[in-house]
Amino acid sequence: MDSAGDVDFQPDLDMSAMPTVVKNRVKALKKLQFETVEAEELYYKEIHQIDLKYQKMYDEINEKRLQIVSGKHEPSGAEIEWPSDDDDEEKKDKSEEEIAEGVKKMSVNGYTDSTVGIPKFWFHVLRNANEECLMGLIAPYDEHILESLTNITVSLNGVSENTGFTLFFHFADNEYFSNNILTKEYFLRASHDKDCPLEYDGPEIFKSKGCKIEWKEGKDVTQKTIKVKTGKSGKGKAKKEVEEEVSLDSFFNFFSPPVVSDDPNDELSEEDKGTLAVDFDVGFAIKEKIVQRAVLYFTGELLDEDDFESCSDEDESEEDD
User: Fold this and answer.
1) Structure confidence at residue 6 as a pLDDT band (50, 70, 90)
2) pLDDT above 70 covers what percent of the chain?
3) Which CATH superfamily is domain 21-74+115-215+222-227+242-320 in?
């Protein structure tokens, strides 16, 4: 006998066997349900208007962050008044050996008292967030390229378009590609699916669009040329050796999502649905987590479970008080 977990779920009621009067009442309920869907669409439309309003504030704050990271502005006075672990009395009592070792370590990492701004800030942000937010997309051969990443910015589509957004990855001149900006755009269907109107659950991604990376000669880390031997070796004949390009796992494949229809109502293959779902999770995490909390990924605080639990305990304590 099959276990309960192996049996397909069956509704308790057989709607096809219901009396006509009951069926009509259910139809009326579905029509009311559709009114809820229409109300939800208006709700999400207003939410997007609020998002647009506050995105301007985020942009202003993030511009100040860029000025510090790039070394164009040196914070001082009230700007640097923030509690730090380094201010603890216990850590002030470090021995000279520990201090020297700390200075040596920082020098190895490339940061000294003469460092301008915070070099490789976004590289360390992404590398620290690689497993949590980027699904492990960053490969070892991507890292040197990401060291030239200078900023990540976000732009929201207007209300008249859709509730999508675009990510902009700003790069300094580098030896790998000539683009100074790589873009990734996400398109969301704000309204319900005409084929399944009652299944509406808010704006839903139906397409993403990357950009063409202008790789310099021999620098494309998403492709590798290998030599393979083909043909059958007969008497006195050697196998022919030909070059073949193979795809490599790379963060930069993020800019080459599946090509799908511009019509949000077109049906996607299950494979494309799955790929787009992962793609959207990564894009949304970059928008909502990495860009918004970059300094905490840089320091690794968001990845430190002890620090997280400590903050949670403090919050709970304050609520109890």
Assistant:
1) low
2) 77
3) Nucleosome assembly protein (3.30.1120.90)
